[in-house]
Design a protein that fits this description.
With 110 residues, the protein is α/β, with parallel strands linked by helices. The protein is 15% helix and 41% strand. Strands 2-3-4-6-5 form a five-stranded mixed barrel. Strand 3 and strand 4 form a beta hairpin. The N terminus is likely disordered.
Length: 110
């Protein structure tokens, strides 16, 4: 008897809401597939379809933003945004982010 240990799925849900903001440089260096991340920066280029280039000043990374989650007509280039998503290690070696949520971020301090 006694206390039950927390289930892994419960703790991962809790940590997803309290994630610290990472940098592109950190994500590219760690290369942890399926890691939940929060990034702040700007969408700087539309690559193709739902794929965009994201930059935060430490580097650039390709991000996939589903049209269902954030319609293209609402996405403005070079606007400060916060993205939450998962790291994807592609078969060709690229590191990308599958975006779960994107919001306009407050203007960064200059």
């Amino acid at each position: 008897a006694g206390q039950e240990a927390p289930r892994p799925e419960d703790s991962s849900r809790m940590s997803a809401t309290t994630l610290r903001v990472s940098t592109v440089k950190e994500v590219l260096a760690s290369q942890r597939d399926d890691e939940h991340v929060v990034l702040r920066g700007r969408i700087v280029k539309h690559i193709r379809g739902e794929d965009y280039m994201f930059s935060d000043g430490t580097g650039e990374i390709e991000v996939e933003i589903d049209d269902d989650d954030y319609p293209k007509d609402r996405l403005q280039m070079n606007t400060d945004v916060e993205i939450r998503g998962e790291v994807d290690l592609e078969r060709d070696g690229r590191v990308t982010i599958d975006v779960d949520r994107i919001t306009t971020a407050p203007n960064r301090m200059r």
